[in-house]
Automatic annotation (TrEMBL):
CDD domains: NOX_Duox_like_FAD_NADP
Any GO BP: anatomical structure morphogenesis
Domain EF-hand: 161-196, 205-240
Cited PROSITE patterns: EF_HAND_2, FAD_FR
Positions of the FAD-binding FR-type domain: 508-614
MF terms (GO), sorted A to Z: calcium ion binding; NAD(P)H oxidase H2O2-forming activity; peroxidase activity; superoxide-generating NAD(P)H oxidase activity
Protein's name in the database: ARABIDOPSIS THALIANA RESPIRATORY BURST OXIDASE HOMOLOG F, respiratory burst oxidase protein F
Pfam family, one: Ferric_reduct
Transmembrane segments annotated in the record for this chain: 273-292, 413-433, 454-475
Bilayer topology: Multi-pass membrane protein
Gene source species: Hibiscus trionum (Flower of an hour)
GO cellular component: plasma membrane
Keywords recorded for this protein, A-Z: Calcium, FAD, Flavoprotein, Membrane, Metal-binding, NADP, Oxidoreductase, Peroxidase, Transmembrane, Transmembrane helix
């Protein structure tokens, strides 16, 4: 799919695009038009309350949430993409058996296999009701189905005429097939489809929603709904195309020419590139320097270029063993990040990636240094000509030529081998599979892996650095103390890192943190509201480390702050994703039962900077959070709302002034697969909706992936109820907030396309927090739309 087709023409006076409009638009230059109903018997009852409710559905902007290219997408019983009749026929043939009747032998499938035939095996109860509606509700609907009947049913389900599919849905709701839908029928269908879509619903809610539909359609209070009224409701509530025009004269940003992909990649990665290039140049220079130096030493006559290679690698090892500590000096990085000069040229957000890159350099150095010594240098020393040995390096060995085993027993070699073993343990347990306890690992291995194992094994480097000092002081080829430079390399980084750990210990140990509030949310999410320590200052998007000595006095785990900088408390949302978080949740769960005085003791350390802090660099911000990944963005949105409120007050009081920079427009996309997740930030969503009534700066888009996407017949009635309820009460039935919930996975291509059109020529910061898989997709989209349109998308990511 080419993006060029999505771009507006440069010579047009206006740009028409389809956008979501669940919240107020931020542009004053846009006008919305909605497609009216072709007919509606209900509308003829002018002035009635149900009439007014349906009118709000049509004109209130509540339903125009997704663009639809044709009627086939507005209501469908089966997904025909990649699921054509020939695929259904193949599945029919695999499941069919031969039955004998009046017409002779026929290939048939059991009624219970109909769902498997049409590709809806996972929705068994719904398929049974659909089959009952297709057959016509006769008592013998639970019977064998021939291929001709299956083909007929398939044609009815995929009928391109919308009215035909609405009538089929009517028959599905009409339980006794008398041409009328009663309130009890609607309640039964609601009770059927909610579990299919993994939605929790109470008995009273099903009755309330059924009554709401009756209120909207049963204008004459007959106690039932007829097909024409049902058709009017679905045509009013199913999403339609909403067209919004943006005029050129209101465009804020100047037109810019699209950039080439090479230029976009350079702009996105130049800071990483120069840091890595500088690192490689330093490593190469150090290696070359030592390689040439030892090529002119007397020992070269014994060991040759093996010695030069080993010593060159050793010099890079000294440098990298010093450098690897700097990316994990979090206090120092947080302090440097505040300086615009440093943050503009140093990619602080990639500190862990650089830490891993240096670790890779250490692995290569160890292989070259240790491998060359063991495989080449030591055999040449023990097997060299005695006269050459005496003339060159005999003094280093007390004038006695050692055997290979004697060399291995020396202090320098023994410490080197010990370091290699410790680093192998730490490096292997720090890789993704053991650290995340991958299911692909054998069960016996999984028992001894995980984050805790990674954390403890990483502290083996305390021993490694101690052994490194000993190793450097007993080199048998280096006598001059000035040439024993290892301590010179590592002294400052080790002292800096040790100082940071000391400051962390003192700061967390003397800062008593009082727990103000504890909440346990569905999905095993723990909410902690903590008293803000005196002098604690943080910016939105930062994170803190938390320790619970009752679990472990050594383990610290990072969590994003979900409170705003102006709040007088600290708050975190912790989801149980590992051993430590599970134990923490269990402790507080038990404490809630025994009373607040029994809460476990908590220490905090921080705050520390994260990539989300860079949101202040952009006028337009797009935030994408998956599940608990929304947490850092809650802090950012709170900060934006507070700053806008303060700037309004200051502007009213002073008349002018320069308020602190803050994004002028923010989009939040929250994707979750569990309905209960919306409870985590329910109060905040209500607060944002209230703020948006005054200043439409933030647009929130909730996506629930457990529900079949909008347009699917399995969720069509839920969409109708959702629209009616929100039009009447202003509350979404899924999230229980004013923020409308969309169903299914977001179409990120369409979302980026709309953003590029809405903010032509702008520079948009895209911030993501979630699993790595989607991060790669979004980074590709940012690059693609930056090259094909004149809107710049700059990608930032965090993982959990």
């Amino acid at each position: 799919m080419e993006i060029d087709d999505e771009e507006p023409h440069s010579d047009s006076d206006s740009v028409s695009i389809t956008i979501s409009s669940s919240l107020s638009s931020s542009s004053s230059s846009c006008s919305a038009s909605f497609v009216p109903l072709p007919f509606s018997p209900v509308q003829q009852a002018a002035g009635s309350a149900p009439n007014r409710l349906l009118h709000r559905l049509e004109s209130g902007g509540m339903l125009s949430l997704v663009s639809w290219s044709n009627d086939g997408e507005r209501l469908r019983f089966v997904d025909t993409e990649g699921n054509e009749w020939r695929n259904v026929e193949n599945r029919f043939d695999r499941l069919a058996s031969t039955a004998y009747g009046g017409n002779g032998p026929q290939r048939v499938v059991k009624w219970s296999d109909f769902g498997a035939c049409i590709g809806m095996r996972e929705s068994g109860e719904f398929v049974n009701e659909l089959l009952r509606a297709l057959i016509g509700g006769r008592r013998e609907w639970k019977r064998d189905i021939t291929k001709d009947e299956a083909h007929h049913f398939w044609n009815r389900m995929t009928d391109p005429w919308l009215d035909s599919r609405i009538h089929l849905l009517f028959h599905l709701c009409d339980r006794n097939m008398d041409g009328r839908i009663h309130e009890r029928d609607i309640k039964q269908v609601i009770s059927l489809i909610c579990p299919i879509n993994k939605l929790s619903i109470k008995h009273g809610e099903a009755e309330e929603y059924a009554a709401l539909i009756m209120e909207a359609l049963d204008v004459e209070h007959q106690g039932f709904i007829q097909p024409s009224e049902f058709e009017a409701l679905f045509k009013a509530s199913l999403p339609k195309v909403s067209t919004i025009s943006y005029q050129k004269k209101h465009r804020r940003y100047q037109k810019q020419e699209p950039l080439s992909k090479a230029e976009i990649l350079f702009r996105s990665n130049w800071r990483r590139a120069w840091i890595i290039l500088l690192w490689l140049m330093i490593c190469f220079t150090l290696f070359t320097w030592k390689f040439i130096q030892y090529s002119h030493r007397s020992a070269f006559q014994v060991m040759g270029y093996c010695l030069s290679t080993a010593k060159g690698a050793a010099e890079t090892l000294k440098f990298n063993m010093a450098l690897i500590l700097l990316p994990v000096c979090r206090n120092t990085l947080t302090w440097l990040r505040k300086n615009p000069g440093f943050s503009s040229v140093i990619p602080f957000n990639d500190n862990i990636n650089f830490h891993k890159l240096i670790a890779g350099g250490i692995v290569i150095g160890v292989i070259l240094h240790g491998g060359t010594h063991l495989a080449c240098d030591f055999p040449r020393i023990s097997g060299s000509d005695r006269s050459v040995f005496r003339q060159t390096i005999a003094a280093r060995f007390g004038y006695q030529q050692p055997s290979y085993l004697q060399i291995l027993a020396t202090t320098e070699v023994a410490t080197g081998i010990a370091m290699v073993i410790l680093m192998m343990i730490a490096f292997s347990l720090a890789t993704k599979w053991p650290r995340r306890r991958s299911p692909s690992l054998p069960r016996s291995v999984r028992k001894v892996t995980g984050y805790n194992t990674f954390w403890y094994s990483h502290h083996l480097f305390v021993l490694v650095y101690a052994l490194l000092i000993v190793h450097s002081m007993f080199l048998f080829l280096t006598v001059n103390f000035i040439e024993k430079t290892t301590w010179m390399y590592i002294a400052i980084p080790v002292l800096l890192y040790a100082g940071e750990r000391t400051i962390r210990a003192l700061r967390s140990g003397f800062s008593e943190v009082k727990i103000l509030k504890v909440s346990l949310y569905p999905g095993k999410v723990l909410y902690l509201r903590l008293q803000k320590p005196e002098g604690f200052r943080h910016k939105s998007g930062m994170y803190i480390f938390i320790q619970c000595p009752q679990i472990s006095p050594f383990e610290w785990h990072p969590f994003s702050l979900s409170c705003g900088p102006e709040d007088d408390f600290l708050s975190v949302h912790i989801r149980t994703l590992g051993d430590w978080s599970y134990q923490l949740y269990s402790l507080f769960q038990e404490a809630k039962l025994t009373g607040p005085k029994q809460y476990p003791k908590i220490y905090i350390d921080g705050p520390y900077g994260a990539s989300s802090q860079d949101h202040i660099k952009y006028d337009i911000v797009v935030m994408v959070g998956l599940g608990i990944g929304i947490t850092p963005f809650i802090s950012i949105l709170k900060d934006i709302a507070t700053r806008l409120k303060n700037s309004t007050i200051n502007h009213a009081a002073c008349g002018d002034g320069s308020p602190e920079k803050t994004p002028l427009k923010a989009y939040l996309y929250w994707v979750t697969r569990e309905q209960s997740s919306f409870n985590w930030f329910m109060d905040f969503m209500k607060e944002i909706a209230e703020t948006n009534q005054k200043q439409s700066v933030v647009e929130v888009f909730n996506f629930l992936t457990s529900v079949y996407e909008e347009g699917d017949a399995r969720s069509a009635l839920i969409t109708v109820i959702q629209s009616l309820y929100q039009a009447k009460y202003g509350t979404d039935i899924v999230s229980r907030t004013p923020v409308h919930t969309r169903f299914g996975r977001p179409n990120w291509f369409n979302i980026f396309s709309k953003l590029a059109r809405r903010h032509r020529g702008a520079r948009i910061g895209v911030f993501y927090c979630g699993p790595k898989a989607l991060a790669r997709e979004m980074q590709k989209l940012c690059t693609k739309f930056s090259t094909k349109t004149n809107t710049r998308f700059v990608f930032h990511k965090e993982y959990y």
